[in-house]
Design goal:
single chain; mainly alpha; Methane Monooxygenase Hydroxylase, Chain G, domain 1; 2 domains; 7 helices
């Protein structure tokens, strides 16, 4: 912003002839306009982050969200005080600013407020994205735990029944039967099948 106005001075721009207060306005206007490309690029990053969050979230996504949140905080900390300072120049009580030029400073102030609002909206989106990421990770963990629990439940008969018969205790059912192995395997499979049927009926599987 300052470089641009120095070039105007070198080229004898009419800005100089309108007084130092108008030159200040020109510098502030250039400064506020320089935020728009930054905010546009920032919004694009937020959109990309949202898309990645719901399509393929990962640890990289979380790092990007966290970085974006820090960037929004930095922008607001930068723009907010600038808007407050320029607001003081719009009150109409400064002897350094011509009355006809107050409207220009008001225009700069409006630009900064609008940019700050855009950044604030992006911050809200990022906060929501963080909450959504935590929710997605939590749901994934719940799904993993559900699958592991179902596997453990289904395999339970294959663990308990052979474990009991592996103790070589006398008078266990079918332990003396020549077809005892096949009967026990059949009963184990039947019990497992019944459990699978029950889980599906309850829509847990």
């Amino acid at each position: 912003a300052i470089t641009l106005n120095l070039e105007r001075v070198d080229k004898g721009s009419p800005v100089i002839s309108r007084g130092s207060d108008f030159l200040l306005y020109s510098i502030l206007e250039s400064l506020s306009d320089s935020y728009y490309p930054v905010v546009d690029k920032f919004d694009k990053r937020v959109d990309e982050m949202e898309t990645e969050l719901f399509e393929n979230p990962s640890n990289k996504t979380f790092r990007q969200i966290y970085k974006l949140k820090n960037d929004t905080m930095l922008l607001r900390r930068t723009i907010g005080p600038q808007a407050d300072t320029i607001s003081m120049l719009t009150r109409g009580d400064s002897p350094l600013i011509k009355p006809a030029n107050y409207v220009y400073f008001r225009n700069v102030y409006d630009h900064l407020v609008r940019i700050n609002d855009i950044v604030g909206t992006s911050r809200d989106i990022i906060t929501g994205a963080l909450e959504a990421y935590v929710s997605v990770v939590s749901n994934r963990l719940n799904e993993v735990m559900k699958v592991l629990t179902l596997i453990a439940t289904i395999m339970m008969p294959f663990v308990i029944i052979p474990g009991i018969y592996g103790m070589n205790l006398k008078y266990l059912p079918f332990s003396q039967n020549e077809h005892g192995l096949w009967i026990i395997l059949f009963l184990t499979a039947l019990l497992t099948g019944s459990m699978v049927y029950y889980l599906k009926k309850k829509r847990w599987l």
